[in-house]
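for the writeup, i need someone to sanity check this before i put it in the appendix. the sequnce is what the collaborator sent (i think, or maybe the updated version? ugh). structure was predicted straight from it, no edits. if anything looks off just tell me and ill rerun, i have time this weekend
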Amino acid sequence: MWVSAITYIKCNNNHYYLFAILDLYSRKIIGYTLAKSLEAFVLVNLMKETFISRNEPSNLIFHSDQGL
């Protein structure tokens, strides 16, 4: 099971969003990206990249909250 987490970081009067995907079994961050906007396509691209880098796991359950 993978889960997503999003948090914001304030730096030099700007906000950046940290998107992360965690593997609940290993409890490790398996993908992340930093973006200037909080848009769904950022998470979708991160999911695609992580999915490919993990050799397309079968029977994957992906959980997110807050609609992202």
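Residues 40-53 form the longest helix (14 residues). The helical segments are 40-53.
thx in advance!!
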